[in-house]
Design a protein that fits this description.
Largest sheet: 5 strands, antiparallel
Number of helices: 3
Mean pLDDT: 81
Distance between the termini: 31 Å
Order of helices and strands: EEEHHEEEEH
Low-confidence stretches: 1-33
Radius of gyration: 16 Å
Strand order of the largest sheet: 3-5-6-7-4
Structural class: alpha+beta
Number of strands: 7
Length: about 170
């Protein structure tokens, strides 16, 4: 991942690479959340507030903290599906790791902003889950990312996602 930090005033950054098919539909010029696709489960929403510790000298959210925000949202999404990641690790011997992140920083968030992180399944294969995630303030998209997770054994070897878990994570896709 190559990350370039732009001027603090504009608070934009770019993560190298072109978005591949199946990604978020809003490009850098589009700042509203896209409509829900009826063939997918409803996106999960996670609310958070920007704290002083999340900001940089310019008073805007430090770019790396968006990755923390979407990580928290993914954890809560899995929890709402009734998946206990500790139990999956203990019983199935598998864990999930981020393999790829494609991110677009569209507008800055600031101290004390109330944000909503949405998480939506874009695709599931035998060993991968692709998620579309966005951070918004009052419906205005500030950040968007497509995150690819891979299923691994505890030894770090790629593994298939158990069918029952795949069904729970993306019922409309199976």
């Amino acid at each position: 991942l190559q990350v370039k930090r732009a001027a603090a005033k504009s608070a934009s950054a770019a993560v190298g690479g072109k978005r591949r098919g199946g990604g978020l539909s809003a490009g850098p010029g589009a700042h509203s959340l896209r409509p829900h696709r009826p063939d997918r489960p409803m996106p999960h929403s996670f609310a958070l507030r920007v704290y002083y510790e999340d900001t940089d000298l310019a008073g805007i959210v430090y770019y790396a903290n968006y990755l923390k925000f979407i990580e928290r949202a993914r954890t809560e999404w899995v929890r709402t599906l009734g998946v206990d990641q500790g139990r999956v690790r203990a019983e199935e011997g598998i864990v999930f790791a981020v393999r790829r992140v494609e991110a677009d920083y569209l507008k800055p968030a600031r101290f004390d902003d109330e944000l909503t992180v949405t998480t939506e399944v874009a695709g599931v294969t035998g060993a991968r889950i692709v998620l579309d995630q966005a951070v918004a303030r009052a419906g205005e998209r500030l950040f968007q990312a497509q995150v690819t997770l891979v299923c691994l054994t505890e030894a770090g070897v790629a593994a298939r996602i158990p069918a029952a878990l795949r069904q729970r994570l993306a019922p409309a896709l199976h």
